[in-house]
Design brief:
Layout lengths: L11 E6 L6 E9 L6 H23 L2 E6 L17 H10 L4 E6 L3 E2 L5 E2 L1 E4 L4 E5 H5 L13 H18 L31 H8 L6 E3 L3 H14 L1 H11 L9 H14 L3 H9 L2 H22 L11 E3 H36 L18 H23 L4 H9 L5
Parallel strand pairs: 2-3, 2-4, 4-8
Antiparallel strand pairs: 1-3, 5-6, 7-8, 9-10
C-alpha cells in the first residue's frame, strides 16, 4: 500500500471562507449541462451557489471551506437521469482532485427511487451531492418557469445544497432544524438558512483522510486485502449504507431479475424429479448450495455489468473507492439473499397452501410416502437456489445505475 502524499487541488477556487479550526475541506464543483441548456447560465448559477453557502459552512463547522471549479461534464441530451449516472465521473474527480466531496450541478431532471423528480439527492458513503436546477425552476403547470438568476431559485438552491451537504456529513432529517428539515421550495426565502447541525466529528474524519491511502491495482492479492481493510476501518459507514439501502428489498425494484428467478421455479415446483432431489438432499448440502448460489450470483452480476467504481481503469485505488466497491458487493449480496427469500416464500405458499395435503404421500418417485415439514422447507430452499442462479444469469439488472442508485443515494432530498 502506498503512503498518501499531501497535495492541494489544482483547479481554480470559486469561493473560499476561513474557519476557526485547523481543518480544511475542499469541494469539487462539476457542471453537467444538457445539450440544449444554457451552459453559461448554469455555470454562473453554480458559482453563485458556492459563494452563497461557503461562509455559512465555515461559520457552522469551524473549518476552512473551498469550492473548486472542475472541468464540465456535458450531457448528450436533456433526458431525466438518476444521480448514480454521475457517480463514475464524480468518483474519478474526487480521486484526482483530491476532494473531500464533490457537488454535481445539472439542468436535467433528477429522479429519486420512486421515479419522482427531485431537486437534489446525496450519497453519504460516496460523498457526492447532485443538484438539479430543473426542479428549482419548475412552477405550476400554467405558470412560466423561473429563471436561474431569480432570487427564489438562488436562495432555495443554497438551502438545498446546505441540506444535502448535511446528509453527506451524517446529519438526518430534523423538522426543528432550519437546514435539515425535509426540503421544500419556499418562494419567500431571501437568504441562506443557518446550518445548526453538529457534524464536526464526521467532518474531521473525512477531511483528515484527504489524500487517502491507496494501493496499486496490478497486485490482485494486495488489492483484495486493501478492500477488506478499508471495510474494517469504516464499519459504521458501511453499516449505515446497508441499512439505508434496504438491500434485501432490492428484487422488488428489479422486476426483470425477479421474473427471471420466479418463472422457472413455478415449473420446477410441479416436477417429480425436483421433489425427488429436494427431499433426498441433506440439510448441510442444501444450505451450502444456497450460500454458493448467492455468492456466485453476486459476483456474476458485479463483473458482468462492471459495477465497480469507477468503471474507468486506474493505476491506483484509494480507500474511499475501495469502501464504495465493498458496499456495492455487500448490498448486491443482500439483494440476492432477498431474492432467495422472495422465491422461497412463493414456493412455500404453493407447497403448504396450493398443494393438496396428501399429494406428496402419493408421489410415485418417493420411496418413503411420509413428507415432513422439514422436507417441504428443504425442497423449497433447493428450488429457490436454482431461482437465484437463473435470475442472475437470465435476468440480470435492467440498468447498472439502478443498483448504485438504490444502494448509495438517499431515498429523498
Amino acid at each position: 500500500m502506498g503512503e498518501p502524499q499531501a497535495r492541494e487541488p489544482k483547479s481554480a477556487v470559486l469561493a473560499r471562507a476561513a474557519g476557526e479550526r485547523d481543518l480544511a475541506v475542499d469541494v469539487g464543483l462539476v457542471i453537467a449541462p444538457s445539450a440544449e441548456g444554457d451552459r453559461a447560465a448554469l455555470e454562473a448559477f453554480a458559482g453563485r451557489l458556492a459563494g452563497d453557502v461557503v461562509g455559512e459552512l465555515a461559520d457552522s463547522t469551524g473549518a476552512d471551506w473551498a469550492f473548486h471549479a472542475e472541468e464540465h461534464e456535458p450531457l448528450s441530451d436533456a433526458e431525466a437521469r438518476r444521480p448514480s449516472e454521475f457517480l463514475d465521473e464524480a468518483a474519478l474527480r474526487m480521486v484526482e482532485g483530491p476532494y473531500d466531496l464533490v457537488v454535481v450541478v445539472t439542468d436535467v431532471p433528477l429522479l429519486a427511487r420512486n421515479h419522482r423528480r427531485v431537486a437534489g439527492l446525496a450519497s453519504p458513503l460516496s460523498r457526492v451531492v447532485t443538484l438539479s436546477t430543473h426542479r428549482l425552476q419548475t412552477r405550476a403547470r400554467d405558470d412560466p418557469t423561473r429563471s436561474l438568476d431569480a432570487p427564489a431559485v438562488r436562495w432555495n438552491g443554497a438551502a438545498l445544497l446546505l441540506h444535502e451537504i448535511g446528509h453527506v456529513l451524517g446529519a438526518r432529517h430534523d423538522p426543528a432544524d432550519k437546514v435539515m428539515a425535509p426540503f421544500e421550495f419556499d418562494d419567500g426565502r431571501e437568504r441562506v438558512p443557518e446550518f445548526d447541525v453538529d457534524v464536526e466529528r464526521r467532518l474531521a474524519r473525512i477531511a483528515r483522510r484527504i489524500p487517502e491511502e491507496d494501493v496499486e491495482t496490478r497486485s490482485l492479492p494486495r488489492l483484495l486485502w486493501f478492500h477488506l481493510l478499508s471495510a474494517a476501518r469504516n464499519p459504521r459507514q458501511l453499516g449505515r449504507a446497508l441499512v439505508t439501502s434496504r438491500a434485501p428489498l432490492l428484487p422488488l425494484s428489479l422486476p426483470k431479475l425477479s421474473t427471471a428467478a420466479v418463472a422457472p421455479t413455478l415449473i420446477l415446483v410441479f416436477s417429480a424429479e425436483t421433489w425427488d432431489v429436494g427431499i433426498h438432499l441433506d440439510n448441510a448440502t442444501t444450505a451450502l448450495f444456497a450460500a454458493v448460489s448467492v455468492v456466485l450470483a453476486t459476483f456474476y452480476l458485479l463483473f458482468s455489468l462492471n459495477l465497480n467504481v469507477p468503471r474507468k481503469r486506474r493505476d491506483v485505488v484509494t480507500e474511499h473507492v475501495a469502501l464504495l466497491n465493498i458496499a456495492i458487493v455487500c448490498i448486491l449480496a443482500l439483494g440476492m439473499v432477498g431474492l432467495f427469500v422472495l422465491v422461497g416464500t412463493i414456493m412455500l405458499v404453493i407447497e403448504f397452501v396450493v398443494f393438496p395435503p396428501d399429494l406428496m404421500t402419493n408421489w410415485p418417485t418417493l420411496e418413503n410416502p411420509t413428507v415432513t415439514v422439514v422436507d417441504l422447507l428443504r425442497t423449497g430452499a433447493f428450488i429457490s437456489t436454482i431461482g437465484v442462479l437463473s435470475g442472475a444469469l437470465a435476468g440480470g439488472l435492467e440498468d447498472r445505475t439502478i443498483l448504485r442508485h438504490l444502494a448509495l443515494f438517499l431515498a429523498r432530498p
